[in-house]
Q: What sequence folds into this?
C-alpha cells in the first residue's frame, strides 16, 4: 500500500492541508499535491478501470503522459470527465470520481471482459460484428454504445469563462526545464522578445528530482536563479501551467493555459488559448519514460521508475514499503537511491543488461541494494495489486528462478524524446540505434515562409539525456558534472523468449488495453503498416495518444515483421499534445458573442410588437408577429390574408443592395446576369438571375438602373456579401481592364415593402409623390418625398399584389416605418413576416433561392428561360448550361403540386417511382421544394422538381411521408393565385 | 496557418484574414469552347507536390485578390503579386528556378 512519508516533499506545503472527496470518501492532501499524489498519499493505488477489459488500474506516471488515472472532476456546471489525476492540482473541496466501472471501482461487472479476453483479440470489432446484419442494430450497437467512451458527458452548461489570446514573439520556448530555461536565456540575451511556457506549475523539469550538480550548485538552486534572471528581463514573458499544444505552418503555435483548474474559485477565465506567431520556436519538451513489457505490467503498483522518484521526492509519497526496480538502463538506479534515502526498501534492482558498469550502479551497490543483472521479470504476482514478482533470465523463455515479495514495481524501458511538437508541422525523425529512441533530425526541420527551419529542439527532447548533455545542447555557459552511464539495452519484451501465455499479459497501451500479443496478431494477419496496425489494434488511439505505448508497440511490430524499427516508422503525431478543453477552443465565442447579430433599423419595433424571430444569415428577421396568445401558425395565416385583402408592411431592409457604377457597368452586369441589364432604361427595374460558372443558379433579385452608368442590384438576404464578393472576383481577376466600381450598400438603406390592394392609399396619405399606375407603372422606380422623407420608391412585387418598396437612409428607417404604420392604420395595415412572405410568393409560383435551388439547379429547370437572354454572346454560366447533362430532357423540372385531399405535402418529400435502384432503395422521380398551407385557397400548395414535370401536367404522382404512408398529388401550374396578374397590375 | 503578404495593402496577413481561391492563371472558356476544353476549364486542376500558384483574397482586409507562389510541401512562399496578370512575373519564375534547379512553370514531367 502506498502512503505519505513523514518528511520531505519538495513541492508540498505541509502547513496547508486540503480536504477532497474521491468516490464519495473524504480524503486529505496538502497544498502542492496533484490529485494522483494525494490519492497515493491516502493509500489509494487503484484509480480506474481499463477501457476494454475493465482491469483494475493504478497510476503509472506522474505527468501528462498518464494513461490510467482518468477522473471525473467537479460537479454540476463544473463537471469534466477524463481529467488526468497526475496533472490535476489538488484544491480544497475537490471532488473526483474514477471512471469506467459499474457499480463500483472495487467491484466492477464489466471485468467479465477480462476473462473473455481471448475472445476479444485485436480487430475484434471488425471480426465479430459483421454477421448477422440484424444483430448490429439490435445487439451489438446498443451494447457498444453503452460501454464505449470514457467518463460521462457533462449535463449542464459550462459555468466557466474561456478566452483567446494572441501573441507575436521572436522566440517561443516550449518547456521550462533546464534546456528551456537555458534557451530562453540565450534568446533573451540576443535581444528579441521571448515567451517561455511550461505545462506544469513548476520550473526546472526533472532536474531537481534527478539531482546532480550544475556549475557547483544543486539543480534546484540553479533553476531558481535562472528563473529570477529571466523574470527581470523586459523582453521575456513566462507562463507556467501553459502547454504547447500544437505547432503549425509559418510559426503558428497554439498554447493552452490552465489558469484556475487549481483554484476554481479564483476570478477570471478558466482556460486561455494562446494563438502565437513566433519567428523561432524552441522545443524543450523533455523526454517520456517507456514502460517495459512483462507479464502483469499493468497491475496497480507497477509504475514508471521516474514517476516513483517524482512521487517520493516531490510529494513524499511512498509507492509501497518494498519496491522492486526493473530496468534496461541506468536512470532507474536513481529511483533506487531516492527510495533508499527515503528509508524505503528496495528488495532488488532487476537489470536486463548482462554486465552494466557505471558509477551510478556502483553507488546503488554500495548502498547495499541487491542488483541482479541479465535478469527479467517473468510475471507480476497479485490480483488487484502487486504482491511480488517472479524473476527469470532476460535471455530465456520465462522459467522462474525466484520470487521476490514487494508492494510496488518501478520500471524503466528507457526514455523517448518528446518529439510530438517537432513532428506536428513536418519535422522528421531519425532512429538513434545507440540510445534506442527516435530523435529529431536537424536536417529535416519544419520550415517557414522563407524556406528556413523555424523549429529547433533542445535538451532531452533532442536526445540529450544527461544533465551535462542537456545544458550543452541548449547552449548553457554552466556545465554539469558529467557521468558516463552504461549503455542501454533495448528490451521490447521481457523475457525476450516469452511464450504466448506471457505475451498475452504484457500491456503496451494501458488505456486501450492493447497487448504485445495483439500487435503480433495484427502483424500475422497482414497489417504491415504501423498506421494500419494502430487502427486495427487501437494502439495509441486513446486520450493519451500512445505517449507511453507507441515506441514499444512499433518495436514489437518491427520484430514481428522482421523489419528494422526505422523502416516501420512512427504513426503521425497530431496536435494537441494532450487534450485541450472545448471551452478553450470556443473562447469567448458563445452565447451573445457567438457571432455578430445584425439588426435592421426597425428591429426594436418588431421586438416590442410580437416578433417571432427567425435567423437569416446573421440577421434576425420576424417570422411573424404574434398578437396576444395567438399561435405562430394563426399569425402567419392572418398576415397572409390581410396582405391579400388590405395592406401589409414588410421590413425588407436585409435584402442585399449592391451599387454597380462605371462606364463598363452595363457590360459587366450583362456578364453577371443571365438577362440583359445594359438595355434596361433609366427609371426601370428588371428581375435578374445570377449563375455560377458551372451554370447553377446562385442568386436572384431586382436590378434598377439609377442613371446612365449606375445600376442598383438587389440580392437575397443571405447572398449580399457573397454576391458582392462574386462580382469583385470577376472584376479583379478576369475583367480588370473594365471600368466598374461596386459598393455594398445593404446596411446604408432601410427598405419597407407596402404590399396589398390598399398600398397606394397608404402612401397617398403620406403624400408627396404621384404613385398612380400611369406615373409609376409596374417595374419602375422614382426618387421623391413621402411624408417628408427622402425616399426611393420601387414598384416591384414579390407577392402578386400592388406593391411598393420604399428605400430610405437607414437612420430614418424606423421613423418611416412608424409613419407608415400610423398612416396605414385606417386601411388595416399590419406588418407581416418572412413566413407570410413565403406563402405569398409560393401562391404566385415565385422561386426562392435555397428552396427551389440547392446548387444543382439551373434556371432552365425552374422554367425561367424567359429571364435568360438569347441575344447575348456570353454570361457567367452560359457555356455550362449548354453541356449535355444540362440540356438533358430527363432533368427534374419545376411544377406546382396539389394534393388530391388538400393536405400540405411534407417539405422535401420525395416523389416515388416504380422499382428499386441498385442499392435496393425505392426509385424516386422528384421532390418537394416549397410547401405551404394557403389560407386564401384553403388548401395545401406546393412546388417541386419532377422528372419531365412540365410535360406531365394533370398527372397524379405519389409522395412518401416520413411515417411510411403516401400522399397523392396532381402536377399543376406553379401559379396558384391570380394567374393573369390582375391584382398587381392596378 | 499561413502568413501571406498582400501586395495591395502591404499587410502580412494571417490566413484567417484570407480566403483561398484555388489555382491561379486559369484561362476562362466561354460559349465557343469545345466540350473537352470547357470541361478542363471547369474541373481539371494542377495538384503539384511542390511549387504552386494560387489565388487568395484579402477578404477580411483590403478585399483584393492576389496570387501567391507557394511550395505545397514545405510551405515556403516564393512571392505574392497582384491578380491582374495572365502569368506569373518573370523575375518570380526566375527566382523559383534558382531555388529549385530544373523547375519550370506548369512542367509536371
A:
Amino acid at each position: 500500500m502506498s502512503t505519505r512519508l513523514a518528511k520531505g516533499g519538495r513541492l508540498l506545503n505541509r502547513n496547508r492541508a486540503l480536504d477532497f472527496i474521491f468516490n464519495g470518501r473524504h480524503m486529505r492532501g496538502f497544498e502542492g499535491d496533484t490529485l494522483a499524489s494525494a490519492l497515493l498519499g491516502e493509500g489509494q493505488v487503484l484509480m480506474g478501470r481499463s477501457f476494454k477489459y475493465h482491469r483494475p488500474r493504478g497510476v503509472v506516471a506522474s505527468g501528462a503522459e498518464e494513461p490510467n488515472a482518468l477522473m471525473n472532476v467537479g460537479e454540476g456546471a463544473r463537471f469534466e470527465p477524463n481529467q488526468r489525476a497526475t496533472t490535476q492540482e489538488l484544491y480544497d473541496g475537490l471532488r473526483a470520481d474514477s471512471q469506467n466501472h459499474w457499480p463500483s471501482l472495487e467491484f466492477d461487472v464489466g471485468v467479465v471482459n477480462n476473462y473473455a479476453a481471448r475472445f476479444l483479440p485485436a480487430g475484434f470489432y471488425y471480426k465479430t460484428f459483421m454477421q448477422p446484419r440484424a444483430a448490429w442494430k439490435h445487439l451489438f450497437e446498443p451494447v457498444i454504445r453503452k460501454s464505449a467512451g470514457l467518463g460521462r458527458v457533462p449535463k449542464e452548461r459550462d459555468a466557466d469563462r474561456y478566452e483567446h489570446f494572441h501573441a507575436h514573439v521572436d522566440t517561443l520556448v516550449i518547456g521550462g526545464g533546464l534546456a528551456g530555461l537555458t534557451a530562453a536565456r540565450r534568446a533573451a540575451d540576443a535581444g528579441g522578445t521571448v515567451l517561455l511556457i511550461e505545462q506544469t506549475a513548476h520550473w526546472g523539469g526533472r532536474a531537481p528530482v534527478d539531482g546532480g550538480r550544475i556549475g557547483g550548485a544543486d539543480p534546484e538552486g540553479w533553476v531558481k536563479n535562472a528563473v529570477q534572471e529571466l523574470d527581470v528581463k523586459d523582453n521575456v514573458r513566462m507562463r507556467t501551467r501553459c502547454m504547447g499544444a500544437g505547432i503549425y505552418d509559418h510559426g503558428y503555435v497554439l498554447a493552452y493555459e490552465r489558469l484556475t483548474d487549481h483554484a476554481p474559485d479564483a476570478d477570471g477565465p478558466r482556460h486561455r488559448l494562446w494563438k502565437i506567431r513566433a519567428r523561432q520556436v524552441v522545443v524543450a519538451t523533455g523526454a517520456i519514460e517507456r514502460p517495459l513489457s512483462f507479464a502483469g505490467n499493468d497491475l496497480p503498483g507497477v509504475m514508471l521508475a521516474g514517476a516513483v522518484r517524482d512521487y517520493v521526492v516531490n510529494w513524499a509519497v511512498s509507492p509501497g514499503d518494498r519496491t522492486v526496480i526493473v530496468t534496461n538502463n541506468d536512470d532507474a538506479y536513481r529511483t533506487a537511491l531516492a527510495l533508499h534515502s527515503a528509508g524505503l526498501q528496495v528488495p532488488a534492482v532487476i537489470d536486463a543488461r548482462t554486465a552494466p558498469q557505471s558509477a551510478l550502479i556502483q553507488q546503488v551497490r554500495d548502498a547495499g541494494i541487491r542488483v541482479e543483472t541479465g535478469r527479467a521479470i517473468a510475471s507480476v504476482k497479485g490480483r488487484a495489486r502487486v504482491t511480488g514478482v517472479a524473476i527469470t533470465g532476460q535471455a530465456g523463455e520465462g522459467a522462474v528462478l525466484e520470487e521476490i515479495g514487494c508492494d510496488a514495481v518501478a520500471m524503466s524501458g528507457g526514455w523517448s524524446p518528446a518529439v510530438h511538437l517537432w513532428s506536428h508541422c513536418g519535422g522528421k525523425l531519425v532512429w538513434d540505434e545507440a540510445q534506442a529512441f527516435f530523435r529529431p533530425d536537424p536536417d529535416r526541420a519544419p520550415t517557414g515562409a522563407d524556406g528556413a527551419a523555424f523549429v529547433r529542439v533542445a535538451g532531452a527532447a533532442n536526445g540529450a539525456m544527461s544533465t551535462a548533455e542537456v545544458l550543452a545542447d541548449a547552449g548553457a555557459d554552466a556545465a554539469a558534472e558529467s557521468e558516463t552511464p552504461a549503455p542501454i539495452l533495448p528490451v521490447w519484451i521481457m523475457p525476450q523468449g516469452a511464450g504466448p501465455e506471457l505475451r498475452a499479459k504484457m500491456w503496451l497501451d494501458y488505456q486501450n488495453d492493447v497487448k504485445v500479443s495483439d500487435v503480433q496478431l495484427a502483424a500475422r494477419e497482414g497489417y504491415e503498416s504501423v498506421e494500419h496496425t494502430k487502427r486495427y489494434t487501437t494502439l495509441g488511439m486513446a486520450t493519451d495518444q500512445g505517449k507511453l505505448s507507441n515506441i514499444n508497440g512499433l518495436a514489437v511490430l518491427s520484430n514481428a515483421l522482421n523489419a528494422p524499427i526505422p523502416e516501420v516508422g512512427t504513426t503521425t503525431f497530431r496536435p494537441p499534445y494532450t487534450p485541450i478543453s472545448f471551452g478553450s477552443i470556443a473562447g469567448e465565442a458563445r452565447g451573445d458573442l457567438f457571432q455578430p447579430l445584425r439588426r435592421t433599423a426597425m428591429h426594436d419595433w418588431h421586438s416590442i410588437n410580437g416578433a417571432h424571430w427567425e435567423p437569416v444569415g446573421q440577421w434576425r428577421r420576424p417570422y411573424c408577429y404574434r398578437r396576444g396568445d395567438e399561435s405562430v401558425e394563426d399569425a402567419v395565416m392572418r398576415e397572409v390574408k390581410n396582405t391579400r385583402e388590405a395592406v401589409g408592411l414588410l421590413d425588407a431592409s436585409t435584402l442585399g443592395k449592391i451599387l454597380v457604377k462605371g462606364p463598363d457597368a452595363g457590360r459587366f452586369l450583362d456578364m453577371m446576369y443571365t438577362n440583359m441589364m445594359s438595355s434596361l432604361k433609366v427609371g426601370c427595374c428588371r428581375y435578374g438571375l445570377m449563375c455560377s460558372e458551372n451554370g447553377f443558379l446562385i442568386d436572384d433579385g431586382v436590378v434598377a438602373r439609377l442613371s446612365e452608368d449606375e445600376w442598383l442590384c438587389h440580392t437575397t438576404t443571405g447572398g449580399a456579401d457573397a454576391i458582392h464578393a462574386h462580382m469583385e472576383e470577376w472584376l479583379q481577376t478576369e475583367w480588370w481592364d473594365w471600368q466598374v466600381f461596386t459598393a455594398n450598400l445593404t446596411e446604408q438603406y432601410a427598405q419597407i415593402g407596402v404590399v396589398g390592394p390598399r398600398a397606394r392609399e397608404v402612401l397617398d396619405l403620406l403624400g408627396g409623390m404621384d404613385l398612380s399606375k400611369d406615373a409609376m407603372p409596374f417595374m419602375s422606380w422614382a426618387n421623391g418625398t413621402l411624408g417628408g422623407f427622402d425616399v426611393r420608391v420601387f414598384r416591384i412585387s414579390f407577392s402578386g399584389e400592388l406593391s411598393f418598396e420604399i428605400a430610405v437612409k437607414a437612420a430614418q428607417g424606423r421613423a418611416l416605418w412608424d409613419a407608415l404604420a400610423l398612416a396605414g392604420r385606417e386601411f388595416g395595415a399590419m406588418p407581416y413576416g418572412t413566413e407570410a412572405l413565403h406563402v405569398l410568393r409560393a401562391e404566385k409560383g415565385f422561386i426562392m433561392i435555397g428552396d427551389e435551388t440547392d446548387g444543382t439547379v439551373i434556371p432552365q429547370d425552374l422554367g425561367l428561360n424567359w429571364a435568360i437572354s438569347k441575344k447575348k454572346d456570353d454570361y457567367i454560366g452560359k457555356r455550362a448550361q449548354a453541356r449535355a447533362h444540362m440540356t438533358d430532357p430527363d432533368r427534374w423540372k419545376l411544377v406546382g403540386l396539389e394534393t388530391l385531399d388538400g393536405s400540405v405535402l411534407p417539405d422535401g418529400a420525395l416523389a416515388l417511382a416504380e422499382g428499386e435502384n441498385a442499392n435496393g432503395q425505392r426509385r424516386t422521380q422528384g421532390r418537394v421544394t416549397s410547401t405551404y398551407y394557403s389560407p386564401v385557397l384553403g388548401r395545401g400548395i406546393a412546388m417541386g422538381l419532377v422528372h419531365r414535370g412540365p410535360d406531365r401536367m394533370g398527372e397524379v404522382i405519389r409522395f412518401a411521408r416520413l411515417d411510411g404512408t403516401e400522399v397523392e398529388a396532381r402536377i399543376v401550374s406553379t401559379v396558384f393565385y391570380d394567374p393573369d396578374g390582375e391584382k398587381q397590375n392596378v | 496557418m499561413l502568413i501571406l503578404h498582400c501586395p495591395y495593402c502591404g499587410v502580412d496577413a494571417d490566413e484567417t484574414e484570407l480566403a483561398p481561391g484555388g489555382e491561379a492563371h486559369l484561362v476562362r472558356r466561354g460559349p465557343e469552347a469545345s466540350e473537352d476544353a470547357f470541361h478542363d476549364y471547369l474541373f481539371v486542376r494542377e495538384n503539384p507536390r511542390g511549387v504552386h500558384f494560387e489565388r487568395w483574397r484579402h477578404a477580411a482586409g483590403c478585399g483584393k485578390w492576389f496570387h501567391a507562389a507557394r511550395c505545397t510541401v514545405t510551405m515556403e512562399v516564393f512571392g505574392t503579386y497582384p491578380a491582374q496578370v495572365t502569368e506569373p512575373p518573370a523575375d518570380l519564375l526566375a527566382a523559383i528556378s534558382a531555388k529549385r534547379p530544373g523547375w519550370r512553370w506548369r512542367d509536371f514531367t
About this structure: The CA atoms of residues 26 and 37 of chain B lie 12 Å apart. Chain B touches chain A at residues 1-3, 14, 19, 21, 28-31, 33, 35, 38, 42, 55, 57, 59, 63-65, 71, 74-77, 83-84, 99 (CB under 8 Å). The longest helix of chain B spans residues 90-99. The first strand of chain B starts at residue 3 and ends at 5.
